[in-house]
Write a structure and sequence with these properties.
Largest sheet of chain A: 7 strands, mixed
Number of strands of chain A: 7
Oligomer: homopentamer
Order of helices and strands of chain A: EEHEHHEEEEHHHHHHH
Structural class of chain A: alpha+beta
CATH architecture of the largest domain in chain A: 2-Layer Sandwich
Distance between the termini of chain A: 52 Å
CATH superfamily of the largest domain in chain A: CorA soluble domain-like
CATH class of the largest domain in chain A: Alpha Beta
Shape of chain A: rod-shaped
Chain lengths: 370, 370, 370, 370, 370
C-alpha cells in the first residue's frame, strides 16, 4: 500500500454526495453473492453471481428464517445498487460501503442499521527494510435490515474473519442458529475483534523480541536494523490505534441505541465485545509506553557505551602526547644540548617518561575516569 | 503572507464593535455579484456589479425558487452593507464576514443563519527555502436567509471551491436543483471540505517522500534541506490542525441546531460532513505522530552513523599515537643509546611497533568496538 | 517586577478574610475619581478627589442616566471602602479589587456584579538580557451596580485600555450612548481584549523574527542571544496563557449568568468577546507549538553543523597521523637502517605517504564521510 | 511470564462466545473447594473436592447463614460449570472467570453480581538482569449470589490475599461475622487492595534506593546496571498503573450500583476502598513523575561529568601539540639552520615552549575552561 | 523523612477496617486537649489532658456557644476513641484521622462532617545535598459536629497554622466571634491555605534565584549543584502539586454539599477559599512550565558553550598536525634528501608551514567556524 495513512486518500472532489464509486484496489473479479438461509432446524447455503436470481430465492423464506447475504468484493457498483434498492439502503450508506477508507461508525436508519468497521490481520514476514508494515486492514460493512436479514460487504483482500462463523453455522446446536440476525451481527463483529487480539499479541512479541535483543546487545553502536524495527513497530501501533479508538465509540453507540432490531440479549453479548475493545485499547496504550521506555533505555545504554569508548581512546592519546613531546625535544638538532652528552641522559629521560605515564594513569584512576 | 499565524493579526483597537472594515489583502477590484436563481425545472445565472439592479431582479422570484447570491471579493464595504441591510444581517455579522481572520463558527439569528469557515488549497511548488508554506487558506462566509436565499462571500484569493457546485447546478437532474437553499449550503460546505482531504493527502505524500529519503539516505550528516522540509511540514500540519478542530465544533453545532431553516434531510447529509471532518482530524493527528516518529528515527539514525565515524577516526589516531611515540624515542639524539648501535635494533623496533598495532586492533575487535 | 509569577506573591497570612489591603506597587499618588454621566442626548465628565462631593453630584441623576465611575489608583483604602459602602459591595469583593493578583473571575451578588480581569500591554524595547519581559499586565475590576452605574478600578501602571472608550463616549451617535451600563461594561471588556490581540501579534512578530534569523544563520554555534530570546519568548507566552485561559471561563460564566442586569442584547455582544478570547487562545497555543517546532529545528540544525565541523577536523588529523608515524620511523637514529642508504629511499617514502593520504581520502569519500 | 503485556495474549479466535476454557498456566492440580458457613454465633469450615457433596452440605443452611465458597484453582472446567449452573451464572461470566486476562470489571445480573479484579504481589529478589519483573499478579473473581452466598475463584499462583480474612472470620467478635455476604465481598476487595499499597511502597523504596545511588555516584559513566534498574522500575510502574486505573472505575460502578444485594452500610465501607484506590493512583502517578525527574537528573549529571573529562583530555592534547610542532622544526635535518648553531638556541627554545604552555594554560583559565 | 512519597507507606495489611492505629512518627508525648468556648460576648480557653473532665466542662454550655476542641497530637488512641464515641464519629473516620497519609477529602455523615487536609510549611535552610526537601507537611483533620462544635486534630510536627485563628478569637470584634462553628471551620481552612501561598512564593523565589544564576553563569560546565537544586525544586513542586489538586476537589465538594451545618454565608467565604486553591494550582502549573523552560535553556546554553570549547581545541590540533607532519618529513635521516642541502631549504619550509597555517585559519574563518 502506498500511502502512510490509507484513510486519507482518494478524495472525491467533484462527485455529488451519494455518488457510489469504489475507491479501493481489490482485483476486479466478479462479485460473489453468498447467501445463508437458516433457522434452528434448517440451513441452506447458495452462491449467486446475479442479483435477480438471488432475489427470487430469498423471497421463498419468511421472517422466521435468518438470511445472511455476503457480498464478496465491492467493486461491482451496479449490483450493490440493486441490493441497496431492494433493502431501501440510502445512497449515502452505499457510498460509505464502497468508499473503503471509512472511520468505524454505526448509523441508524428507518429501514436498517449500518455498521462499518475494519478488520486487521497480521502478516508474518521478513523484517526487510522494504516492507513497511506487518498490519494490513480491510473494510467490512454490515447492514442489518428489517426482515431478519443481514447483508455483509467484504473487500476480500486477505484472510476472511467471517469464515469461522460460517463453520459454526453448520453446527445445529450453535447459539447463532437459535438466534436472530442481530446475534449474527454480533458474531461477525466478535470474530473480527478476535483478530485484533492476535495483532496486539504479535506486536507484543515484537516488543519482547526487541527487548531481549537490546539487553543482549554488546556492540557499541545501535544497529540501524533495530532502529528501523522500532520505527516500523511504532508505525504499526499508530495505525492500529487510529482504528481501535473509534471502534470503541462505535460499539458504545450500538450499546446505547434503542433500536428494536437489536435485542437486549444481543446487547448483553455486545457488552462483552465492548470490554474486548477496551482491553485492546489498554494493551495498545501500554505497548506505546513500553516501546517508548525501551527506546529511551536503548539510546541511553548506547550513548553510555559510546562515551566509554571515546573516553578510553582519548585517554590513550592523552597519555602518549606529553611523552611524545619529550621525545621530540631530545630529537632536536641543536649543537649545544647538554643532556644529550650526559652518559645516562637517555636512561634518565626514559625513566622520566615512564613516571609521567604512570602519574597520568594514577591520576585518571583516582578521578575514577578508568 | 507575512505572519506565522494569520489568525492573530490586524487588531482593530479603537474601532467600535460592529464597524465593518475589510482586513484582508485581496486586490481592490470591483466586487462581482453572481446570482443563481433555480428550481427543479428552471435555472438562470446573472452577474451584476450593482446592488440595486440585482435587488430588482431577484424580487421577481417567489420563495419556491432558490436564490444563491455570491459576493466575489469582500473589500467593497458599501455594497456589503447594502446586502446586509436588505437581508437584515446584524452589523456584527457583517464585521465578521469582512474581517478575514475568523475562527470557523456557526451563529443563529432571527432572520438568518451565518456560517464562517475556511477553505484550504494546496500549492504544489518548489521546495525552496524562501517559500514558507504550501497551504494557503481563504475565508468563506455563508448566510442562509429566510426566503430560500443563500448568500456566500468569497475573498477570491485562489482556487474557487464553489466552482464544482456551479457546474453541478446546470444539471437538471442534480439533487441540488430539487432541494432548498439549506441543501445548497450543505453542498458548498461539502465541496470545501473535500479540498481538506486533498491537503491531508498531499501532506501524506510529503511525509512518505521524506520517509523514503530518510531510509535511503546513506550520508553521515542530516541534510539541512531535509530538516527544513520537516520544519515546514510541521508548520503546515499545525496550521491545518488549528482550523480543522473548530470546524468540527462548527459542524456539530449546525447538527444540534433546531432551527427550522435546516431541514432534517439536510442534517442527514451534514452528518456525513461531520464524519468527513472527524476523519480529517484523525488523519492530521496520525500525521503528527508519524512525523514525530520519523524525526526521532532520522535523528537517532544519524547520531548513530556520526558516532560510528567519530569512533573509527579516533581509533585510527589511537593506534598510531603509541607507535609514533616509540619512533620519537629512537629519534632522540642522545650520545649513548645502546639500542641504536645494535645491528638488529631497527628491525626489532619495527616488529615491536607491528605487534603493538596488532594488539590494539585485536583489543578493539575483542571489545567489539570495530 | 521581581517575581517570576506575580500572581503568587504577598500572601496575607494572618489577615482576617475581607481585610482590605492594597498589595500592588503602584505609586502612592492621590486617588482620582473620574465620573461620566450620560444618556443619548446628554454627557458630562467630572473629576473628583473626594467621595462625598462625588456622591452629591451623582445623586442628581436618576436611573435613565448611565453613571460610569472610574477609580484611578487603588491604594487609598478608605475611599474605596466608602465607595463600597455606598454601593453595598461586600468586603470580600473590595479585598479582591485591591489585592492585585487575582485570577480573572466573574461573581454575582445581590446588589451588583463584579468582574476582575487583567489588561496586557506589550512594551517594545531592547532585547537586552537584563529585561526579562516585554509583557506587562495590570488588574482591572469592574462593578456593575443596580442603578445603571458602573464602577471601574484601575491600577494605572501603564497604558489605559479604557481611554478609547472615553473618546467614543463623546460621539453622540455612539452605540454606547444609546445603551445602558451593561453595554459600557461590554465595551470596557472588549477594549481590554483588543490589547491581547496586539500582544499575540507582537509575540508572532518575535517568532517570525527568530525564524528568519535561524534560517539565515550560517554560523556553527547557536548564539546565546538567540537562546535567551527564545527563553524570554516562552516566558511571555506562559504568562499570557496563564491569564487567557481563565478569561475564557470568566466570559463564559457571564454569558451563562441569568442576571437581569445584563441584557440579552449585551450578551449578544459578549458572545463576540468570547469568540475573541477563544481566537486568542488558539493563537497562543499555535505559537507554543511553533516555538517548540522552531527550537527543535534550530537545535537539530546546529547539532548537525557542529557534527560536520568536528568530523572534518577529526578527518584531517586522521589523515596526517599515519604519515607522521612513517616520518617518525625514518627519523630514528639506528645505525643500521637499510632504507636510509637507498638512493631513492626518500622519494619512495614520499610517494608511499602520498599514496596513503590518497587512499584515506578515497576511503572517506567512498564511505560518503566527506 | 513470557509476554510483556500479559493481558493481551491467547486470543480465543474460533471459539464460540461463552465457551469456557481456562487460559492460564497454573498447575493442573485438583481443584479444592473450601466452604465457610457462618453467622454471628456459628462457624464451620469444610474442604471438598467434589461439587455434589458440597451441594448437599450447603443446602442444610438457610439464608441467615453466610456461605463463602472458595474455588482454589480454576482449571477444572467441569466443576466450575456445575457451580455456575447451580447459581445460574451466565456462561459469559464463567468464560470471564476462567479466562485469566480480564480487565477489572463489575457486572450486575439478575441472579448475581460478578466482580473480577487482580491481586498484585511484590516479589523481593535479586536485581539480576534475567528477571524482568518484581510484580506478579493474579486474577480473582467474586460472584455474589442471591441467597447470602459468595463464591470466590482464585488462580492460586502465589500469596493468598484472602488468608487474612479467613483468620479474621474465626474471631467471633469480628464485624464480618455479624454482617452479610456483601460485607465479606468488601472485606475480600479491601484485603486485596492492601497489597497494592505494599507494591507501591516497595516501588517507592526502589526509587529512593536509586536516588541515593545516583547522588552518591562519583563515576563518570552511567552504570548499565542502574539504567536497567530504571528500565525495570518503569515497566513495573506501567504494569501496575494499567490495572489500577480500571480498578477505580470498577469500585466506582459498584458504588453507583443500586442493586439491593449491596447494602448502604457496605457501600459506606466500599467508599473507603475507593479512596484507597485513588490514593494508590496518586502514588503511582507521583512515582512516574519522580522516576522521570530522576532519570533526567542522572543523564544531565553524567553528560556533564563526561563533558568535563573530554574537555580535560582534549585540553592536554591542545597544550602539547604546538610545542611538539616546535620540537619537530628543530628536529629537521637541513644543512643550514642558523638557530641550531646558536650557543643558547636550545635554552631559548625550551623557554619559548614553556611560555607557550603557560600562555595556553592562562588563556584556558581566563576563559574559565578549567 | 524517609520515603519519597510519604502518602504511600505503612499499609495496614491484616488490620480490620475501622481499626484505629496511629501511623505517623510524631513524638509520643501526652495528648493536649485545648478547648475554646465562645460567643459574641464571652470567650474562655481551657487546657485538659483528660477527656472526662473536658466532657463535664463543655456540657455546661448550650448550643449558642461555639465549642472548638483541638486535639494536639493524635497518638493516644484511647482518648481519640472517647472523643469519637461522644460525638458519634464513625470508626472509619477515626481511622482516617489517625492514619496520617490521607488524601484531602470531605465526607458527610449523619451526625457530623469530616474534612481531612494537609498543611504545608516551607523550611528555609541550607541547600546541602543531604537535605532532600524544603517542604514539610502535616495532616489536619476537622470534625464539624451537630451542637455547634468543631473538633480539630493536629499532628503537631511543626508550625501551627491555627495559631493565627486563636489570636483572632481573642478580639471581641472579630467576625469569628459573631459566627457559628462552620465559620470557624472556614477560618481554619483559610489559614492553612494561606501557608500554601507562602510555599508557592518560596518556590518562585528559588526559580528566580536559579534563573539569575543560570543567566550569569559564565563557566563551561553545568554545576552539579545547580542540577541538584533543579532536581530538588522539581521534587518539591511534584509533592505540593500532589496535594493541591485533591484540595480543589475537596473544597468543591464542600461548596456543593447541601448539608445544613454549613450556612450559605460560610459557603460564600468558602468560594473565596476555592478561588485561592485554583490560584495556587495555576501558580504551581506555571512554575512547572517555567522550571522546564529554564532547564531546557540551561542545557542548550551549556551544550553550546561546550561545543564551542571542543571546536576551538580541535581546531588548534588540526592546524598543527599538518605542519608537524612536514617537520617530521625533514627530520628523516635519508642519505639523499636534496631539499636538506639547499641553502634556503629551511627558510622555504618555514614559510611553507606558515602559509599552511594561514590557509587553514583563513578557511576556518571563511566557513565561520571561528
Amino acid at each position: 500500500m502506498k500511502h502512510p495513512d490509507p484513510d486519507i486518500t482518494h478524495p472525491k472532489i467533484g462527485l455529488a454526495p451519494g455518488t457510489i464509486k469504489y475507491t479501493g484496489s481489490a482485483p476486479k473479479e466478479r462479485v460473489k453473492l453468498t447467501v445463508f438461509v437458516y433457522n434452528e432446524s434448517f440451513i441452506e447455503m447458495k452462491v449467486y453471481y446475479d442479483w435477480s436470481e438471488l432475489e427470487k430465492y430469498i423471497q421463498k423464506f419468511d421472517d422466521s428464517y435468518v438470511k445472511w447475504l455476503n457480498v464478496d468484493g465491492i467493486n461491482h457498483i451496479h449490483l450493490i445498487e440493486k441490493v441497496g434498492e431492494h433493502y431501501k439502503v440510502h445512497s449515502l450508506s452505499l457510498e460509505d460501503i464502497v468508499h473503503i477508507e471509512q472511520r468505524p461508525k454505526f448509523e441508524e436508519f428507518d429501514h436498517y442499521l449500518m455498521c462499518i468497521f475494519r478488520a486487521f490481520y497480521y502478516l508474518e514476514g521478513s523484517d526487510d527494510a522494504h516492507k513497511m508494515q506487518n498490519l494490513i486492514s480491510e473494510q467490512l460493512s454490515v447492514v442489518l435490515a428489517k426482515d431478519n436479514t443481514l447483508i455483509s460487504f467484504q473487500e476480500n483482500i486477505s484472510v476472511d474473519p467471517f469464515e469461522i462463523i460460517r463453520k459454526r453455522l453448520s453446527n445445529n446446536k450453535s447459539k447463532i442458529r437459535r438466534a436472530k440476525a442481530d446475534y449474527l451481527f454480533y458474531a461477525l463483529l466478535d470474530a473480527t475483534i478476535d483478530y485484533y487480539f492476535l495483532c496486539v499479541e504479535k506486536l507484543g512479541d515484537r516488543i519482547e523480541g526487541l527487548e531481549s535483543e537490546v539487553i543482549k546487545d554488546k556492540s557499541i553502536s545501535i544497529s540501524a536494523k533495530n532502529l528501523f524495527k522500532i520505527y516500523r513497530l511504532k508505525k504499526d501501533i499508530i495505525q492500529l490505534r487510529k482504528i481501535v479508538w473509534p471502534m470503541r465509540d462505535m460499539v458504545n453507540s450500538i450499546l446505547h441505541s434503542d433500536n428494536e432490531m437489536i435485542s437486549e440479549n444481543t446487547k448483553f453479548y455486545l457488552r462483552d465485545v465492548y470490554d474486548h475493545v477496551v482491553r485492546i485499547i489498554d494493551g495498545i496504550e501500554t505497548q506505546r509506553e513500553l516501546v517508548s521506555g525501551l527506546i529511551d533505555f536503548y539510546l541511553s545504554m548506547n550513548a553510555n557505551k559510546m562515551n566509554d569508548v571515546m573516553k578510553f581512546l582519548t585517554m590513550i592519546s592523552t597519555i602518549f602526547i606529553p611523552v611524545t613531546f619529550i621525545a621530540g625535544i631530545y630529537g632536536m638538532n641543536f649543537d649545544i644540548m647538554p643532556e644529550l652528552r650526559h652518559p645516562y641522559g637517555y636512561f634518565i629521560v626514559l625513566i622520566l617518561m615512564f613516571i609521567i605515564i604512570l602519574t597520568l594513569l594514577f591520576y585518571f584512576r583516582k578521578k575514577r575516569w578508568m
